[in-house]
Design brief:
By secondary structure, the protein is of the alpha/beta class. The protein folds into 2 domains: 157 residues, Rossmann fold, CATH 3.40.50.280; 250 residues, tm_1862 like domain (pyruvate-formate lyase- activating enzyme, Alpha-Beta Horseshoe), CATH 3.80.30.20. 39% of the residues lie in helices and 16% in strands. The chain has a 6-stranded parallel β-sheet. A 5-stranded parallel β-sheet has the order 2-1-5-6-7. α7 crosses α8. The longest helix has 17 residues. The termini are far apart. The relative contact order is 0.11.
Length: 512
């Protein structure tokens, strides 16, 4: 599809956490702006959640009535630094807003929150269900917002090309309902669909597009080149930079503007077993550290963010080294791998001086056997020193643990418990997750697996654990033993509900 147009609309659909702009669309904005293409954006995620939270409700129970009466106050609170000085008050605001959203589906089908959207009757990993969402958008609780907003923008701007960025399953059903609404309003407009989830689907072996006649074009990978090709413009990766101007005035639920920035795409390590990056053959494409530093300085000057969020799968050692040499008044955080760099106290102190407020660390396990089987490249002795050094440097840690990998037994899970308790003073936040088996990774053939019934778009498969360490046992272990340990329970209470790592830096003295 080629389309001669100077009028493009980019849409960020519900539902993801409404605390910062979508970085993928900001990159597309930069590419269009540099070529003087007229474009606009709709953060339908933020707008849609605001619409639902403020829509009148008929309620009878005291909790919901109180939550409804405090909607404006709670929205305003999450945009002010003072709310982040009291975790209990913050939690109350988030829970009350979630309560109002949960009550907004009058058909009783959908579950809406500040971070998720689910429908009890249709699934985002079944193409037939996504088509059903497209054909019956009026069943979606966001439909009144979709209809009003899209009809207004079509009348005002007459965009001929509309792009949706679909990155997460929590956005899928709403995306197709929104496209269905759009088609009713103007069947002639061209619609393209890209984003992380679309990329994962399109890179499945034997992929066949089930959305012919609904979507005019699907885009895998970074969308700038594909978008520019559609409108007869050339792309140059070396000269592109994100543009956030149209996002800056929007009322995101954070105490200031958060700047999402990616110094790379893909993962520099790419050796972990069962990694989706391997299964999808995603290449690693870093931006030169010197260029990253230059771009960040320019963006910080123009946007005056309160926080920089590195959205990389993992910041490379070279990038961390470059950041450590550039003191910044703006705090930042992002994912890193445990390496010998972090085992050096001086390096951790340099990171702190550079503005590092928090590091997200995929430790995964406290068992060296599991880490070695996973090809994670982590030495637990180095991990221990790294956590201690980060603690001493004043850098918070958000540690991710993964249970139920094929190499783990209950004994290994106990070792993870022991490691976490032993080093609990050096861990600020914890994320506990159960392992999902990627359907198309090379290691999946080594296990006894079964497909998820009728879920033709699922990226995962069921498997029989070699040691019988199945999900029910893992959940029982986590609920009755791991989470109940006094030291671990104290860490889990630190976690900001719903917004989790996105807001966690604001509880680590990162705010001015």
């Amino acid at each position: 599809m080629r389309l001669k147009t100077n009028n493009v609309l980019l849409i960020h659909p519900p539902v993801v956490r409404p605390c910062e702009p979508p970085p993928g669309i900001a990159r597309l904005c930069g590419a269009l702006k540099r070529r003087s293409i007229d474009y606009d954006i709709i953060d339908a995620n933020l707008e849609g959640l605001m619409f639902l939270s403020q829509r009148p409700l008929v309620v009878r129970d005291t909790w919901t009535r109180r939550a409804v009466s405090r909607v404006e106050r709670n929205l305003e609170a999450l945009m002010q630094p003072t709310a982040y000085q009291n975790l209990d008050r913050y939690k109350q605001a988030v829970y009350e807003l979630n309560r109002v959203l949960a009550m907004q589906d009058r058909n009783g089908n959908a579950e809406v929150s500040l971070a998720n959207y689910q429908d009890r009757h249709i699934s985002p990993v079944k193409s037939d269900d996504l088509i059903q969402a497209f054909e019956s958008p009026e069943k979606n609780p966001f439909f009144p917002y979709f209809e009003r907003r899209l009809s207004g923008v079509l009348e005002k701007g007459h965009p001929r090309l509309i792009g949706f960025s679909l990155n997460f399953l929590s956005q899928a059903l709403c995306t197709f309902a929104m496209i269905g609404t759009l088609r009713r309003l103007d069947p002639t407009v061209r619609v393209i669909l890209g984003g992380g989830l679309i990329t994962s689907w399109m890179r499945r072996p034997g992929w066949r597009n089930p959305f012919e006649g609904i979507i005019d074009g699907l885009v895998a990978g970074e969308g700038e080149a594909s978008l520019l090709s559609l409108i007869d413009r050339e792309y140059s990766a070396e000269s592109e930079v994100s543009d956030f101007d149209k996002f800056l005035p929007l009322p995101y639920l954070s105490p200031g503007f958060i700047l999402p920035y990616s110094a790379s795409s893909g993962c520099y390590w790419r050796r972990c077993a069962f990694c989706p990056e391997q299964a999808e053959a995603n290449p690693y494409r870093p931006i030169a550290p010197s260029r990253v530093i230059s771009q960040l300085k320019s963006l910080i000057r123009s946007l005056n963010p309160i926080l920089v969020h590195f959205t990389d799968n993992a910041l490379s050692p070279a990038m961390l080294k470059a950041l450590s040499r550039e003191p910044s008044a703006v705090p930042w955080y992002g994912f890193v791998r445990i390496t010998r760099q972090l085992a050096e106290p001086d390096f951790c102190r340099a990171l702190k001086r550079s503005g590092c407020a928090m590091l997200q660390i995929g430790l995964e396990s406290g068992s060296q056997k599991v880490l070695d089987g996973f090809s994670k490249g982590i030495d637990l002795k180095i991990a221990q020193r790294s956590l201690e050094n980060l603690k001493q440097a004043g850098i918070a840690t958000y540690v991710y643990l993964l249970f139920g990998t094929p190499w783990e037994t209950e004994l290994d899970a106990e070792k993870t418990l022991d490691f976490t308790v032993k080093h609990s003073e050096t861990i600020t936040f914890l994320n506990l997750a159960l392992f999902n088996l990627p359907a198309f990774g090379p290691q999946a053939a080594e296990l006894d697996t079964t497909p998820l019934d009728a879920e033709d778009l699922s990226l995962y498969r069921r498997f029989t654990h070699p040691a019988g360490w199945h999900r029910q046992k893992i959940r029982r272990f986590l609920d009755t033993k791991f989470r109940r340990h006094k030291a671990i329970a104290a860490i889990l209470r630190n976690d900001p509900p719903v917004f989790t790592s996105n807001h966690a830096p604001f509880f680590t003295n990162a705010l001015p």
